[in-house]
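Tokens as discussed.
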């Protein structure tokens, strides 16, 4: 009976592993560490798992685009780049991404799922990156690339209203 249970468990693990790729499993360890840094508000760990220049550029572009779209005076095009630089740096904090993590269902009082569970929700991209979606086959919301031996958050395509500066 025990051998049958071990065989069934092994087959279940193999089936689950077949649903993920080696790239996803590799990335999932670093995504797990990023989630822990967000939950624990650990700036040093957060910085190890974020490509600050890439993510800052993307957030700056979002700030500038939003300002220009809302502006009827034409002043946004002048002031937006300086404001975007300040905002881009301010938004790269673990507590800012806590609301994003909660959007994915990760609450501060919950255990963070292990890398195998995280790997099952990552989607490999043709250029070698992976992305996280909220639901199966949904659009990419967070993008990760392998840089200097670690998977780092490089893009945020989710709802910008989730990024709030108040802890």
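Sequence:
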């Amino acid at each position: 009976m025990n051998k049958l249970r071990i065989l069934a468990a092994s087959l279940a693990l193999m089936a689950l592993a077949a649903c993920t790729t080696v790239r996803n499993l590799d990335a999932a360890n670093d995504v797990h560490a990023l989630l822990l840094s967000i939950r624990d508000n650990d700036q040093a760990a957060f910085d190890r798992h974020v490509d600050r220049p890439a993510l800052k550029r993307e957030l700056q572009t979002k700030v500038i685009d939003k300002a220009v779209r809302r502006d009827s005076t034409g002043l946004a095009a002048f002031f937006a780049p300086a404001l975007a630089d300040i905002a881009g740096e301010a938004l790269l904090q673990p507590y800012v991404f806590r609301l994003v993590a909660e959007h994915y269902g990760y609450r501060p009082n919950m255990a963070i799922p292990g890398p195998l569970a995280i790997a099952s929700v990552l989607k490999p991209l043709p250029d070698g990156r992976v992305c996280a979606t909220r639901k199966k086959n949904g659009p990419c919301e967070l993008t990760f690339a392998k840089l200097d031996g670690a998977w780092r958050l490089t893009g945020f395509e989710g709802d910008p209203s989730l990024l709030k500066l108040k802890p």
